[in-house]
Write a structure and sequence with these properties.
The protein has 101 residues and is mostly helical. It is 80% helix and 0% strand.
């Protein structure tokens, strides 16, 4: 049941404002996760490394969200939305690494 809720949240987040920037961020996460797998075995450590490596893509997505009609420059709305995005990205990397193993 929780998996279905997570998938629904991820699907709802993936369409909408800043979709190209989000796609670029996730592509970077997946590319770097494959590189990070060579240096560490912990999925959590890989997720942290990918977050650091893809900070420019993450920031571009955050700026695009800020400019979107959905957030409309509201700092609280941006923080709330981006908290969901960060959790979704972290979970995505963990699942991606587990799938590759």
């Amino acid at each position: 049941m929780m998996l279905l809720a997570l998938l629904a949240t991820t699907a709802a987040v993936s369409v909408g404002p800043a979709a190209p920037e989000r796609t670029a961020w996730y592509t970077c996460l997946e590319d770097y996760a494959q590189v990070a797998m060579a240096s560490t075995s912990s999925p959590a450590a890989i997720a942290i490394q990918t977050d650091r490596a893809c900070s420019a893509e993450r920031k571009a997505f955050q700026v695009a969200l800020w400019r979107s009609r959905e957030v409309k420059g509201d700092g609280a709305a941006l923080n709330a939305r981006f908290a969901v995005e960060d959790r979704a990205a972290y979970g995505h990397v963990i699942r991606f690494v587990e799938r590759l193993r």
